[in-house]
């Protein structure tokens, strides 16, 4: 029999330490057992210098819910040409604590404080982003302009 997983400060500290040491400066802690599972639930620890390129999920089952658990995040939403259509500042106990992002909406999330963690839920199975789901107007992770674009996103908050 499996034991319940307690989500506590010790787990947050562990996942945050792993994010700080990771080259991409973020780390997932999955509650689902496998990438093929129908439901994906995870913690995502991010540091402020981690860049998630704008993207969308075209599959109608891939709406994505994010709830801030620690630190502070900025969520940015775009139209298909790359124009910013909205933002939200997310923080535990804040005016906004989370967001539900419908499939087809281009978005990015930036960490605004060290040790930031959010809970994410969306349908599985895991599938790498298709070219049409990647924003053609934003630099990919690791490209020379990625740091400047991340700074542009963070400056909105």
Description:
By secondary structure, the protein is of the alpha+beta class. It is built from 2 helices and 8 strands. It has helices at 9-21, 146-154; strands spanning 26-30, 39-46, 64-70, 73-78, 84-90, 98-101, 106-111, 116-123. Strands 1-2-8-3-6 form a 5-stranded antiparallel sheet, with helices on one face. The radius of gyration is 15 Å and the shape is globular. The model has no long low-confidence stretch (mean pLDDT 96).
Cα radius of gyration in angstroms: 15 Å
Q: Give me the count of strands.
A: 8
- Content-based structural category: alpha+beta
Q: Give the end-to-end Cα distance, rounded to a whole number of Å.
A: 45 Å
pLDDT averaged residue by residue? 96
Shape: globular
Poorly predicted regions: none
H and E string: HEEEEEEEEH
Spatial arrangement of strands, main beta sheet? 1-2-8-3-6
Strand residue percentage? 25-35%
Amount of helix: 10-25%
Characterize the largest beta sheet: strand count, sense, and whether it forms a barrel.
5 strands, antiparallel
The total of helices stands at 2
């Amino acid at each position: 029999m499996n034991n319940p997983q307690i989500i506590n400060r010790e787990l947050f500290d562990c996942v945050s330490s792993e994010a700080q040491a990771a080259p991409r400066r973020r780390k997932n802690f999955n509650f689902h057992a496998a990438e093929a599972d129908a439901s994906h639930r995870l913690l995502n620890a991010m540091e402020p210098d981690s860049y998630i390129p704008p993207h969308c999920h075209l599959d109608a089952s891939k709406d994505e819910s994010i709830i801030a658990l620690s630190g502070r995040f900025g969520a940015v939403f775009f139209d298909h040409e790359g124009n910013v259509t909205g933002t939200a500042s997310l923080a535990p106990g804040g005016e906004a604590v989370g967001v539900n992002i419908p499939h087809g909406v281009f978005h990015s999330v930036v960490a605004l404080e060290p040790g930031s963690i959010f809970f994410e839920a969306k349908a599985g199975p895991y599938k790498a982003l298709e070219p049409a789901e990647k924003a053609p107007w934003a630099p990919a992770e690791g490209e020379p302009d990625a740091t400047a674009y991340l700074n542009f996103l963070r400056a909105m908050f």
